[in-house]
Every structure is written in structure tokens, then in C-alpha cells.
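Researcher: Next sequence.
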Amino acid sequence: MSGQPPFDPVRDAPLLSAYVDGELEADDIARVEAHLKADAAGRAEVERLRAFNRLTAGLQLREAPPEDWEVFWESAYNRAERSVGWILFAAGVLVAGAYGLWLVAAAVFASTLPIVVKAAIMAGATGLLVLLLSVLRERVFTRRRTRYDDIVR
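Model: Next structure:
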């Protein structure tokens, strides 16, 4: 054996699918086959995967009609255009907001307002900035993830 750890049914479950598809290296094949000799549940899973492959082997995707391709490319262009627009808008708001906060901070600290009022103004401005950054971070984060990322089979 090549020094790899023994087969872990939870961690190495994707290897069973790769085994069925014939996509494993020799050392992984040996690990999987050694596991399958000792584990009836693993053998059953491999049989389910093989049955699934047999079931889906005859499926073919139909070609999309030209109208669908036109709609697809038009919507892709719209999404790209809107993404650039939102990025530019967000950058402008961020820069203008930061400059506005700087002016507010300079005016507040230069004024003769009581310290409590100064603190309240700064807390409100800081809270607004935190909320804005939170919304922007969430928008960026949800774009990079799909709602299917956390689904475990």
C-alpha cells in the first residue's frame, strides 16, 4: 500500500462513484476494493451507483432551439451589463459615503456640540457604514455560492 490511510466511509464516499466510473488510480482502487470486501453497505452503494449509471447511460440531451439560445445570450449580456453597473454604483456610493463620513466627522469634532451628541452622530454614521458594508458583503458572498453548496448526499 502507498501509505494512504484506510478507507473512511464518510470521508472517502466520493471514491465509490469514481471507482464505478473507472476514474481512480491504482492505489485508490486497491483501497476501495479492500473496503468493499469487508463492507456490505459499501458494496450495496456501488451496486446502486452502477444501476444509476445503467439507467442514465441511454439518456441524451436534446439540442436547444435557436430561439432559446438567443434568449440565453441576451440575458447573459443583460446580467453582465447589470453586474458592471452595480459594481460601479457600489464603488461610487462607497467613495461618496466615506467622503461624507469624513466631512461629518470633521464637522462634528470641530463643533462645540456636547460630547454625547458628537458620540451619537458618530455612532449613527458608523452604524450606517457597517450596515452598508454588511449588505455589500452579503451580495458578493451569495453570488459566489449556490443554494446547493451545502447539500450532502
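Model: The radius of gyration is 29 Å. Residues 66-110 form the longest helix (45 residues).
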